Amino acid sequence: MNLKSALLGAAAAVALAPAAFAERGSDGQVSIVYWQAPSILNPFLSGGTKDVESASMIIEPLARYNEKGELVPWLVDEIPTVDNGGVSADLTSITWKITPGILWSDGSAFTSADVKFTYDYCTDPEGGCAQVTKFEGVTSVETPDDLTVVVTFGAPQPNPYGPFVGGESPILQAAQFADCMGAAASTCTEENFGPIGTGPFVVTEFRPNDVITMAANENYRDPAKPAFATVLFKGGGSAEDSGRAVMQTGEFDYGWNLQLAPDVIAEMAEGGKGTPIAGFGPLVERLMLNQTNPSPDLAEGVRATVAEPHPFLREPAVYKAMSMAIDRPLLVEVGYGQAGKVTCNWVPAPEAFNSTTMDCSTQDIAGANAMLDEAGFTDTDGDGVREVNGVPMRVLYQTSTNAVRQDFQALIKEWWSQIGIETELRNINASVFFGGDAGSPDTFQKFYADVQMYANTFNGTDPQSYLGNGLCDKAPRPDSQWQGENISRFCMPEFDAMHAELTKTAGIEARAAIATQLNDMFVQNGGMIPLVHRGRLSAHATSLGGVKLNVWDSELWNVADWYRID
Hints:
By secondary structure, the protein is α+β, with helices and mostly antiparallel strands.
């Protein structure tokens, strides 16, 4: 069976009509495996997808995106719009009406006070919230009554669906997290490992970077759901282990993010226990270029902060040559096959936001060398390594431990050696790399390397908040507990000004025009080197029904609807 046939078969399986649930918990246990193990269940303290997605089974937003990218109500009666009066005519406020009767898993009432608390929690300047861009432009969150939330913006907001929307912006229970504000946020272990939620499951045990066990939420709003009584959520291992555990041995029901070569996926699918599912959203495998100096010779608090710029990665000839030296079509072939596409963009989807101004599909080693020569960056001592202002062009290139990523590292190291850049490779356990531990030197937020590779995406179909991750003030810092999504520490006043313009602009065409300019500005000025537009590729057991792969939100967005096929 080839990969295309496997995916077509998966689509047919997903299309099966869901069976009616007999009663909550009637289908026993569902087993999920994420080879990147969750390290925390509070997405406000981690930018890692595995943490956001595992938490989405427990804590929920007011609204989220379905598998078609459509905004749908979740804890509210309807999506506020100008037409229904929920968004003010001047676009400066949005009013959410909470569905009556929703309970937290401890049986207490879910109210507007919890929503306002979540805003206060994430925007506390001492807290280091990883998702603070969701609240960009918000001036206040008010609660006229228990079921009404009014979000006010400082200027007209054509896209007011950032706060409390999608898996990255769920609601925390005010009563549980009351003592976890500001600098205390990361110290609240019990709360961060076992949040009380409105979702279909509750945590019974959480072992960071290992296993989560959950049970059906007895206070979930639909009395017939979830169908499963318990969840075993296993983390760790490798993408290959996960794929085999679902499609060949049948040990697990769902395996996430199977970042494997296409022939490996096809061979696993022949096992007959499970089927791969795939879809293209805005997920991009990229190289982030550190704009700051990660040298261990610098003092903590100065290392990898804007106080000390990188000695050569801000040079246009350097980062452009590094990009030119890469053979992206080969990376796609080696790593992803039909589940990958060459991209030059930070935001390749939706199509309206995909810039067409850059072409990076052809490797050009000779051109890269000529560019560096012309800039005067030469090898003066004959050791094969160019120098920039007397500093050898040696880089530490890190990523998470994964077979495809290590293949990419080896190829890129060789290509960069051909243009006079010496590369040291490092790979880090994915659970640590994508964790939010402010004390760890190995997180992607801390970025104690020159170059790092990973994939990232965003919830929904409008990239405003995602592009906000390039704003100067969103760089991780010691005083933000190393949280923040401007991983490169990119800072360009023109970018900030143009993003502010995006927040005030209405109409898809006008917004797309600004967004693509922001995309180009970030890439062309060395914020990152995009590599591959990746399809989401996961797998589920043939005996698991109700799965709808969602590339616009958490993959586990509709876990309450999953059921066992007899």
